[in-house]
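Data card: per-record layout.
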Amino acid sequence: MDSAGRARYVPARVNKAAVLKKIVERLTADLEVYFKAARAAHFEATHEQSKAENKYDTRGLEASYLARGQSKQAAELEQSLEQYRALPVREFTAETPVDIGALVELAVGRDRSWYFLGPRAGGTEVTHGGHEITVITPQSPIGQLLVGRRQGESVRLTFGPKAEAKLVSVS
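The structure for this 171-residue chain is written out next.
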């Protein structure tokens, strides 16, 4: 309770090692999907029935472009996985500026959002402890606003609701 008798909000404690493990599991599952899709597209591109029947028949060519694109996506995801597997679980205090490895709880009014600042794979979402946590990168708009800030500070969101957001917790 605060001095006015209102219930005081206490930030939830989140096991960051478990969050990081869930991010790695999610990226691993996504990578398997890309590998399957790339294999299927490669099979389609090299299959005998994909051979062009005339100069306007581009099925095989289109399938090869698709296979190449999916292979590139898989390679990027592999690099992301390597970086997350090597990422140390770093604890942040109220005085530590937000940086890669920080788990940030933002509040806009009564709404709470959780973000994990990672080296790559922005947009990846995991659920832990009843919280949906979105991976952001320092290059993302919200990442640019948060890097260097500390717990208790406010930032002006320049996207979405365009409101004042408070860094409730940084861990």
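Known properties of this structure: The two ends are 23 Å apart (CA to CA). Residues 31 and 78 are 7 Å apart (CA to CA).

See the next section for split statistics.
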